[in-house]
Amino acid sequence: MPVRITKVDVWAAPLEDQPGGLARVLEALAGAGSRLECCIARRQPDQPGSGVAFVTPVRGARAEEAARGAGMSPAADVATLRVQGPDAPGIGARLTRAVQRAGVNMRGLSAAVLGGQFVAYFGFDSDADADRAAGAMRGVQTAAGSTAKARRTTTKPAKRTNRTKRSKRGW
Fold first, then answer.
1. 50 and 95 in one domain?
2. Which domain holds residue 98?
3. Residues 14/71, Cβ–Cβ less than 8 Å
4. Is 142 inside a domain boundary?
């Protein structure tokens, strides 16, 4: 599977920093049939008693209405790229170094690996920064000579004979 880089719309909501603050927002979206791919929630240290949640995607009129009803709105000040592909040692370092070489400052990054694939959400201050970062990341070597533009990759998931051993692959 080649590395895919796509722009995504992110929605944000303020949260009360108490049990159930995030559940209230997620239940509203679930009730509208939303299928979220990413949710990031955190406290706001500079605002005691409050937090913030970011979700993507919010698709369709029904989901958007539910999101707005739960206090969410499009996060217009965060341009976000979703980057997904085969996991390989150092891929995170190569992607973030490409962004740095393009002269772009990241606003935030969240990433995870599951089943030999990584998915990362890169946040930027503007669409122009996200576009420059995407262009820079497209030239990154993902593994064994393939680039982010490639249609196919030559990497194969590592065989694990002992489930308790820690993987040597990694973001």
1. no
2. 77-147
3. yes
4. yes
Could you tell me the maximum CA-CA distance found in the chain, to the nearest angstrom?
49
Neighbours of 89 (CB within 10 A): 13
Query: Before 57, cis peptide (omega within 30)?
Result: yes
- Tell me: do 132 and 117 sit in the same domain: yes
Residuewise pLDDT in 10s, the chain (171 residues) = 468 999 999 999 999 999 999 999 999 999 999 999 999 999 998 999 999 999 999 999 999 999 999 999 999 899 999 999 999 999 999 999 999 999 999 999 999 999 999 999 999 999 999 999 999 999 887 765 555 543 332 333 344 444 444 445 555
> Measured between alpha carbons, how far is 20 from 104 in angstroms, rounded to an integer?
36
